[in-house]
């Protein structure tokens, strides 16, 4: 089976229902979601299944949900068939609350890093923020897509932050605090609000 079609050789690609330029904002957004998904896959290879069965289950579900988000962004038909719903957002919120209870109290900003899995999860987190910004750009331009995708990406970045802290905590690697950070988190970061 050949995986190349040669149809994109002139800088265009297929959406669901149309063709567009490969550097179109919509393609940038779902391409960035694919990038997030790849780093999540890498993080999964770095997590010990015996220590992190819950995170691995979360991340597998998230990979599928990211595929749904990308598909929804690619669907430009007059009657699109979107897949994302509110439930995955609610699940992420619940998991964030659970995970933030586990590591030591957080008072200051932390630097990305620590264990290999935590470092990879932080990379996925920052790329998720980029994908979220790209959906904001799409919305401002009046592009149609389900708003739940944007909410999901916002919660996912928070989830990945919490998961990175747990990835460090369970293997005994402390978070690396930003040395010039004031104490910025009330309640030790337990009630972190979504930005």
Automatic annotation (TrEMBL):
Give the GO biological process terms: cobalamin biosynthetic process
| A Gene Ontology molecular function term of the record | corrinoid adenosyltransferase activity
- Pathway this chain belongs to: Cofactor biosynthesis; adenosylcobalamin biosynthesis; adenosylcobalamin from cob(II)yrinate a,c-diamide: step 2/7
Provide the reaction this enzyme catalyses: 2 cob(II)alamin + reduced [electron-transfer flavoprotein] + 2 ATP = 2 adenosylcob(III)alamin + 2 triphosphate + oxidized [electron-transfer flavoprotein] + 3 H(+); 2 cob(II)yrinate a,c diamide + reduced [electron-transfer flavoprotein] + 2 ATP = 2 adenosylcob(III)yrinate a,c-diamide + 2 triphosphate + oxidized [electron-transfer flavoprotein] + 3 H(+)
The alphabetical list of record keywords is:
ATP-binding, Cobalamin biosynthesis, Nucleotide-binding, Transferase
EC number(s) from the headed UniProt entry: 2.5.1.17
Q: Provide the Cobalamin adenosyltransferase-like domain boundaries.
A: 3-167
Q: Which Pfam families match?
A: Cob_adeno_trans (PF01923)
Q: Which domain of life is it from?
A: Bacteria
Q: Which family does it belong to?
A: Belongs to the Cob(I)alamin adenosyltransferase family.
Q: How does it assemble?
A: Homotrimer.
Listed name of the protein? Corrinoid adenosyltransferase
